[in-house]
Each structure stands twice: as structure tokens, then as C-alpha cells.
Design brief:
single chain, 121 residues, mainly alpha, three-stranded antiparallel sheet, 3 strands
Length: 121
């Protein structure tokens, strides 16, 4: 998969697939019309674009993901940190927390994540 990018509307469409897969293309059109107010042609155009990016596959009318939602957003986050902060997670974290105060719960979750990471090594 060479192009991980998705716009906000494409991401909402992708969520429909991830939440319902495997999903028939007919059902995907119905859900897209209901949720996104899209016509059938729009659904197929966006689906083809995301299939061409290697995110989804439409095989004989059944749509499945080739990458999970979690994997997709992990790759997006990694790419953002790499391009914006020269790959430095501490630099990203410092920038993020400069304007947003973390709750005690969030700090606790971050500590737990670091501890679990250290235990794995």
C-alpha cells in the first residue's frame, strides 16, 4: 500500500466498511446513501479509489479490508510524526501537550503504555 492518505469523508466511508465487513457492495451502497447521502456512483468511485490504494478489496461484490482500522491509523500517525517531527515521538508529545492539558486518567494511561512497552523489551 503506497498511499495511506484518506480525507475526512473517505474516512467516514471506510468506517462503514470496517464496521460491517465483509459487506456486499449492494449493502455498502445502501449504508452510504443513508449515512453519507451518497448516490451509488459516488460509493463505487470512492470504493475504487480506496481499493486502488490497497486499503480495501472488492471481490465479486464482497468488500473486505486489506488493512485494519487500527493498522491504518497507526501508519497515519507514524507518517505524521516522521514528516512533522523528524520521527521524534518526544518532540510530538511536547508540541501536543504545550496547548492541551492532559487529565490524570490520560497521564495514567500513558504511564501504563510505557511500562508495558518496557516489559516487552
Amino acid at each position: 500500500m503506497s498511499d495511506y492518505q484518506m480525507g475526512a469523508v473517505e474516512a467516514r466511508f471506510a468506517d462503514i466498511i470496517w464496521e460491517n465487513e465483509p459487506i456486499s457492495s449492494t449493502e455498502l451502497c445502501r449504508k452510504s446513501e443513508k449515512v453519507l447521502k451518497w448516490k451509488k456512483s459516488t460509493t463505487y468511485t470512492v470504493l475504487k479509489r480506496l481499493c486502488d490504494k490497497g486499503i480495501f478489496q472488492n471481490n465479486k461484490g464482497t468488500v473486505i479490508s486489506l488493512i485494519s482500522k487500527q493498522e491504518f491509523y497507526a501508519a497515519q500517525s507514524e507518517k505524521f510524526v516522521e514528516e512533522t517531527f523528524d520521527g521524534s515521538l518526544p518532540a510530538f508529545f511536547a508540541a501536543f501537550t504545550a496547548r492541551k492539558k492532559l487529565s490524570h486518567e490520560e497521564v495514567g494511561l500513558l504511564r501504563k503504555m510505557v511500562e508495558e512497552y518496557e516489559e516487552e523489551e
